[in-house]
Amino acid sequence: MVFLPIKKLKKLKISQPLFYNARISDSFFTTRKDGEIGKVYSDGIGVSTHDGEIIITELQFAGKRKMSVKEYFNGVDKESLIGKVFE
After folding, report:
1. 68 within 8 A of 55, measured Cβ to Cβ
2. Contact assessment for residue 82 and residue 46, using Cβ atoms and an 8 Å cutoff
3. Whole-number Å distance between alpha carbons of 4 and 7
4. Are the beta carbons of 81 and 45 closer than 8 angstroms?
5. Strands, E, within 1-87: which ranges?
6. Reduced to 3 states, what is the DSSP secondary structure of residue 70?
C-alpha cells in the first residue's frame, strides 16, 4: 500500500466553484469561447456566454465557505484569471 502526503493530494485535486450570485452584462466578446473569463471587474468575474456575458459576484469552492468575488480576489492574481475557461 502506498501513502501520499496530504500536500501532494491537494495539488492533484481540481475543483470547480459553485456560483451563487451573478448579473448580466451588456458586454459581448465575439472572440471568446463560452465559459471563458473575458474581463475582471472590481466586484466580479466576467464570463462569456453564447449571447453575452455574466458577471459572477459570489462563489464557493468545494469544502470552503461561500464568499464574494472581492474576498476571493484578496488571495489570487486577478489578471491571471483572464483566458481561463469554466467547463
Report:
1. no
2. no
3. 8
4. yes
5. 18-25, 37-40, 45-49, 52-60, 67-68
6. helix
- Sign of the torsion formed by the C-alpha atoms of 26, 30, 35 and 37: negative
Q: All 3 cell numbers of residue 47? A: 464570463
**Using CA atoms, how far apart are residues 55 and 84, in angstroms rounded to an integer?**
14
Looking at residue 84, its pLDDT comes to 87
Distance CA 44, CA 3 (A): 40
Grid cell listed for 63 = 469544502
Residue 17 one-letter amino acid? P
Q: Report pTM.
A: 0.71
User: Can you give the length of the chain in residues?
Assistant: 87
Above 50 in pLDDT, residue 62? yes
CB count in 10 Å sphere of residue 72 = 20
For residues 54 and 27, give the distance between their C-alpha atoms in angstroms, rounded to a whole number. 9
